[in-house]
Amino acid sequence: MRTAIIIAISVLIAGIIFLLVAGGLSQSGGKEDLYAARHITYSSRDKNPYGSYVPFKLLEHYFDGTKPKVITKPFAKTYVKNGGFMEGSTHYFLITKNLFVTQDDVNAMYNFVRFGNQLFLVLEKTDSLLESSFNFKTKISHFHPNLLLRTEPAEIGTAWQSFSNAHFAPDTLFTSRGPVNQYSLDYADTAVTTILGTNEKHEPNFFRVNVGNGQLFVLLNPAVWTNTFLLEKNNIKALEHQMAYMQQFPSQIYWDEYYKYQTSPQQGDFSSWQVLLRHPPLRWALWLAVLLLLLYVLFEGKRRQRLIPPKPALANTSLDFAETLGRLYYLHHHNGNLAQKMIQHLLEYIRNNYFLNTSRLDQQFVTMLARKSGHPQEAVAEMIAQVHTLRLSDNVSDEELQHFYNSIYQFYLKAN
Q1: Confidence class for position 7, pLDDT limits 50, 70, 90
Q2: Banded model confidence at residue 4, pLDDT cuts 50, 70, 90
Q3: Terminus-to-terminus CA distance in the chain, angstroms?
Q4: Which of 32, 221, 305, 348 has minimal CB crowding within 10 Å?
């Protein structure tokens, strides 16, 4: 009996969860809406339906051609480095799903507004630190399955936005398919807070908080700042209505691209490496570079290539041999024997290097040797003539030997 009750309860819970998920998917248009929900970026460079390329490009037309500057660092660091924030008349736009800030960021935002600037936040959910600093609180305006199941994609349905200013009537209601607004204003200090817009339940989701000489604008409906919303029907007027509350001639306009990539409360100080790590392509490129560096260090440390010493040029060994042999026989003054050895070595050198037959040392031989060796034909003819003379001589004088030596020396030295 107990087992049957447990099974029945399990089936009932599974059925409820299935209905919630099925209802969420059917209401959001199925797989296409689920895919779109996972690609909501609110990025100024994203031209997809739920990017914010269109509003980013339109801002300069609303403010006398002043182009917004993209910020990729926390607000606190930007505030410290940019002294222009203290001058007033600066607009700062921040569009994201969930806002995660530090106490330093909130303090900088408060001072930024207090000195006469305007901070425009377009988001679904604010941060508790921001709410306590500016004295307001938000709430969940309606329930949908994704909140129960805690899934990351937002619910895709009908995005609804209307404005409370009577001067905007009658076209104050704007709708489009997009992320459904989930949050609204719960309470605020009415002395400094003005309601500017409402959601489909007529709950305030667009309001202004006066702080010192500046204003904080909060729009709890980021779908209004997407490409698909502004390009549908006449919805571009929704952005015009919002910008009508801003000062028309700001000194600077800033567009934040940092907080939209924060998915959890910040831990520690901001590092420049976070710019690389929060973008998937840059993150993969960084890790790939680190991996290649480690592989290089590993293989370089394991086997380092030795330097190859320069190879000396080949020496003419025939010339060295002739000089050595000449000194040896010259010391004993055997000129005839020395001349025959020199002739024998010369003919062997010609056979091995130029592949000529040395049995007949005629004019044809002289011509072929001069052509192959590159030595002048006259010099070759004189050297061969000396060979014939020395072969027939019984006594060879020092002058004849010296003359023959000079001839073959020049041949060895200049021959190819």
Answers
A1: very low
A2: very low
A3: 110
A4: 305
Output the pLDDT for position 152.
41
Q: Is the peptide bond before 170 cis (omega within 30 degrees of 0)?
A: yes
Beta strands at 183-188 and 136-140: parallel, antiparallel or unpaired: antiparallel
CB atoms within 10 A of CB 39: 12
67 half-sphere exposure, CB direction, 13 A CA radius: 3
Q: What is the CATH number of domain 30-270?
A: 3.40.50
**Rounded CA separation 186/3 (Å):** 46
What phi and psi values does residue 104 have, to the nearest 5 degrees? -65, -40
The reported pTM is: 0.58
Task: Evaluate whether 339 touches 396 at the Cβ level (below 8 Å).
Answer: yes
Domain ranges in the chain with CATH number 3.40.50: 30-270
The proportion of the chain whose per-residue pLDDT surpasses 70, expressed as a percent, equals 74
Quote the CA–CA distance of 114 and 207 in Å, as a whole number. 17
Q: Which helix (H) or strand (E) holds 285?
A: helix 280-302
In the block, tokens 């490129």 appear at: 285
pLDDT digits (tens, 9 = 90+) for 68-80: 999 999 999 999 8
Which residues, at least 6 apart from 1, have a Cβ–Cβ distance to it below 8 Å?
Answer: none
CA–CA distances in Å: residue 136 to residues 183, 299, 401:
13, 60, 119
Cα-trace Rg, the chain: 47
In total, the chain counts a number of residues equal to: 416
